[in-house]
Amino acid sequence: MKMQKKLVIIGAGPAGLSAACAAVDAGLSSEDILVIERDSQPGGILNQCIHAGFGLHRFGEELTGPEYAGRYIKMAEERNIEILTDAMVLEITSDKKVTFVSPSTGYSEIKAEAIILAMGCRERTRGAIGIPGSRPSGVYTAGCAQRYVNIEGFMPGHRVVILGSGDIGLIMARRMTLEGAKVLAVCEIMPYSGGLGRNIVQCLNDFDIPLKLSHTVTNIYGKERVTGVTIAEVDEANGRRPIPGTEEYIECDTLLLSVGLIPENELTRGAGIPIDPFTSGAFVNQLRETETEGIYACGNVLHVHDLVDFVSEEAAIAGKSAAERILGKRGKTVKSIKVSTGTGVRYTIPERIDLQENQDESIRIFFRVTDVFKSVRLTVSDNEGNILARKAKTASVPGEMESLEISADKLNEMLENGVDTITVSVETNRKA
Q1: How far apart are alpha carbons 251 and 195 in whole angstroms?
Q2: Residue 405 to residues 93, 121, 286, 350, 366: CA-CA distances in angstroms?
């Protein structure tokens, strides 16, 4: 079956739904939009995140994950946006052809004028990190365990060790405790947590769950079921290898892995769109347009966010930009400026800024730092050393996204002065 739509959005999680709503609000008819979702219902991963803490930035109130998703589902319904569920996208091409299958449409193709990638991310598994030991049952990713507990009503285990202190791992430490399990330890190979500070306090400290920094799991024991794990301290100066003599055996029946998220970019790569090795997402400009014209990326498929509110904010930029492109409202780019990473910065979003004549909108640059820093100044400077934006903070950590805004006036000055590179840096006297 061949279908006609001007804008195709892949993914109906918070990113895809926000992008679709923003496209309609920017003037594109809802009849020209199709959102394709592989799950049986829209909402994405938020449907299993029953804890509160969502929506404080976007809606000014604290919501659970399903409540936050429900807001966007309702917004999409009010705009009559078509969402095709149980549909799997097989391929996208650089000329914006989307091939997918679903029970209702069969094998289908759409030739679109713009595509927005909003496929989200997945978890790293045991195989990705290569933990030695036997292969018993009882080893889960934290997100898998979350689905079992919150949606399937199944308790994965009762004596739990968690490897990795990402936000999902921290939240599941609390969730398992509330369901009656004993969380014996959360081990983190880095010398700092990968999660939000508030989750460390609310999910670990409030329940007296020990966080063992610079520790990892070195072995898994058990035949049919996990019977225990060995943890050990790692040597920061020697490639984070386990330090002999620091091993500790913990008797447990469950190991949860919260060891990182990977953007779902198989479709992106298949279309030949260049991928940033630091984000594992596409290179984009400030409009969230990839290096393939007319294809946009947003949300966790672009880079892993710490707050869903920022996912929605970013997706709205992509949705508006795609709509303006289709409607012919987008101005011509007169100069592209590279955004580079300076001291203490791991990556930036966007990686380039495409300027128009008489730029009338400011641009916000998002980035993550490489380490835990105290008493910092976050700066954006041009290749002449001029400061374009600066912010002082008492601390900056890798688990929390940072941002700086460059005003429209500064952008126009850059255009006049022929600036071709800007750099985001951390200025600090000491690390934590």
Answers
A1: 26
A2: 33, 27, 12, 12, 9
Place of tokens 């290749």: 383
Token representation of residue 425: 């840096």
| 366: three-class secondary structure by DSSP | strand
pLDDT tens-digit series, residues 184-222: 999 999 999 988 889 999 999 999 999 999 999 999 999
How far out from the chain centre does Cα 161 lie? 25
pLDDT at 2: 78
95 burial via Cβ count (<10 Å: 0-12, 13-18, 19+):
exposed
Q: Does the domain made of 1-122+260-330 have the CATH classification 2.40.50.320?
A: no
| 1-122+260-330 against 125-259: fold identical | yes
C-alpha to C-alpha distance for 172 and 149, rounded to whole angstroms: 10
Local structure of residue 242 (DSSP, 8 states): E
pLDDT of residue 58: 93
Task: Report yes or no: 305 and 6 within 8 Å, Cβ to Cβ.
Answer: no
Domain boundaries, the chain: 1-122+260-330, 125-259, 332-432
| Other C-beta atoms lying within 10 Å of the C-beta of residue 291 | 15
Assess contact for 70 and 59: CB atoms under 8 A: no
- 66 upstream amide cis, omega within 30 of 0: no
Q: Which residues pair with 254 in a beta bridge?
A: 160
Say which CATH topology domain 125-259 has: FAD/NAD(P)-binding domain (3.50.50)
| Residue ranges in the chain modelled with pLDDT below 70 | 429-432
Half-sphere exposure at residue 57, Cβ-oriented, CA atoms within 13 angstroms? 9
Name the token pair of 422. 């800007």
How far is the C-alpha of 147 from the C-alpha of 45, rounded, in Å? 9
In the chain, the amino acid numbered 57 is H
Task: Count CA within 13 A, CB hemisphere, residue 118.
Answer: 37
What predicted TM-score, i.e. pTM, was given to this entire model? 0.94
Give tens-digit pLDDT for 382-432: 988 899 999 999 999 998 999 999 999 999 999 888 899 999 999 986 544
**378 SS3 class:** strand
Question: Hunting for tokens 């492109």 — which residue is that?
Answer: 325
Q: Which helix (H) or strand (E) holds 33?
A: strand 33-36
